[in-house]
Write a structure and sequence with these properties.
The chain has about 500 residues and is an alpha+beta fold. The chain has 15 helices and 18 strands. Its EC number is 6.3.4.20.
């Protein structure tokens, strides 16, 4: 439970650059005090393979006042730690061995998180550590079983270590190399152009602060469940720490949030064609079109041969404030054009809530993906259909789910507009004749709300008559569909 940070230094140092790098390290460490105030420590590795170490029982702002100069002209890397001592690892009288970074004979480690199986590792490998604090098991473990390769460190962290971590490793036998790794603990790195150095810390805010874009440097988050090896020869290698990635050939499983409409049905059929194992997840959330949507998704499930999970919920009745929930009239102005381009029927955070529940079910039931019918056309009116939402949520999901199951969001029709979705649905054998798109409860599609307007036009653009019935005058329908060909359903081909 800490904040970690440090630097890898490129090229020869003079005293001026060394002083500037140390000043920046001190500033980062002081900013990082919010994540740890129980002690501060830093280890600096020089090019000859010698460590220079400073540890203090006080928090960084006080300790730094008395810390001697640490970054000399021969320095090549440094790692530091601001410790937040967990209740379960309280040490009444700390010695230097109880303060991070932890050092072995040649390995130095700074770590944010918890090593839950430290005692087991100690017994299994006959390790001798210098502190009962869990992190102290890492230097002797690495010195005993690590072969020095990126792949070797990947195996140890993925298969041997149980717990949480963002960590940095130095090896005095190989100065000029730095290893960084994280599962769901945060870790960011920044390339400082002026100082020709790579800094890292537990938050991007510690690295850069509030600066104008033209004064800043490149900052990026280390992807969760990733280990990287960085060298002063400008090598950068990375490897995955996801356990699922170590299981080649395992069939991909997708849980499709299915409304019974065109978009999610096409998404499910497209995934089936790509070889995914698919199940449909449908939410009955007490909206106006609940009955026809439920009938549709049940028929779609049978037609595709996929399991169907239904969730009954009345949460959105509490949120309210939407015509889809029976509060106000559904927009049917100008035969649906306005309803297609304006979020008149917005249900507060509906997709966000559905995604959260779907991810929880996917994690619990062993699905790798949650797929959505999010698409580019509806993103013009509804913010929760914007692809950026999915991209950002995928970045956040490793921090919201357990470490044993990687769940990611898919948007098979995300970059498509409605007529392209219909075309794809026809190509992949989606049972479009069974779908329900109308905001109203039927028995026929109204033909005037936003979804009906887009649907009819999308089929016409593809030269195919929509197989569903609309509650419109027969002469209007005959004129609209003149010149189109009949709809023919061909069940999807499955791969895998």
């Amino acid at each position: 439970m800490c904040s970690i940070g440090g630097v890898l230094i490129f090229g020869d140092l003079d005293r001026e650059r060394a002083a500037a790098i140390e000043a920046k390290l001190r500033a980062i460490a002081e900013a990082a005090t919010e994540r740890g105030r129980d002690s501060f420590g830093i280890a600096v590795l020089d090019r000859s393979g010698s460590y220079r170490v400073y540890k203090d029982r006080r928090p960084a702002p006080e300790a730094l006042k008395d810390m001697p100069e640490m970054v000399g002209v021969d320095a090549v890397a440094a790692i530091f730690n601001n410790r937040a001592e967990p209740t379960t690892e309280h040490v009444e009288r700390k010695t230097e061995d109880d303060i991070q970074p932890m050092l072995g004979e040649r390995i130095a480690v700074t770590h944010n998180g918890t090593i839950a199986n430290d005692v087991e590792l100690e017994r299994r490998y006959g390790l001798r550590r210098r502190s009962r604090i869990d992190t102290a098991v890492l230097p002797p473990l690495l010195e005993k079983v690590w072969d020095g390769s990126l792949e070797g460190l990947q195996r140890i962290l993925r298969d041997e270590v149980v717990g949480s971590y963002a960590l940095a490793v130095l090896d005095s036998a190989r100065p000029g190399r730095l290893w960084l790794a994280a599962n769901f603990r945060p870790l960011y790195y920044m390339w400082d152009r002026q100082l020709n150095a790579l800094f890292f810390a537990s938050s991007d805010a510690y690295l850069q602060g509030d600066v104008a874009p033209w004064d800043g440097n490149y900052v990026k988050r280390l992807e969760p469940y990733t280990v990287v090896e960085v060298g002063v020869d400008k090598t950068w290698r990375s490897a995955s720490l996801w356990k699922a990635d170590a299981e080649p050939g395992r069939r991909r499983r997708a849980l499709v949030v299915a409304s019974g409409g065109l978009d999610s049905t096409t998404a499910a059929a497209a995934l089936l064609r790509q070889g995914y194992e698919v199940a449909l997840l449908h939410f009955n959330y007490r909206h106006v079109a609940e009955d026809p949507e439920r009938r549709a998704v049940r028929e779609i499930s049978k037609a595709l041969g996929t399991p169907l999970i239904e969730v009954d919920m009345d949460f959105f009745k509490l949120a309210g404030r939407s015509p889809l929930l029976g509060e106000g009239e559904i927009n049917r102005v100008d035969m649906g054009r306005e309803g297609a381009e304006f979020a008149h029927e917005w249900v507060p955070a509906r997709n966000f809530v559905f995604i959260a529940l779907a991810v929880a079910l996917a994690e619990a039931w062993g699905y790798d993906y949650v797929a959505l019918g999010i698409n580019m056309e509806e993103a013009g009116a509804y913010p929760d259909n914007e692809m950026e939402l999915v991209r950002l949520l995928n970045q956040a999901l490793p921090y919201a789910t357990g470490p044993q199951r990687r769940v990611q969001l898919l948007m098979p029709v995300g970059g498509l507009v409605k007529h392209e979705i219909v075309r794809l649905g026809l190509e992949v054998g989606a049972p479009l004749h069974l779908t329900w798109s109308c905001y109203d409860k039927g028995p026929k599609h109204c033909g005037r709300c936003g979804p009906c307007y887009m649907r009819r036009l999308a089929f016409k653009i593809n030269g195919v008559r929509d197989p569903v019935e609309y509650d419109l005058p027969p002469e209007t329908e005959e004129e609209f569909w003149r010149g189109t060909r009949p709809y023919v359903w061909r069940p999807p081909e499955r791969r895998g």
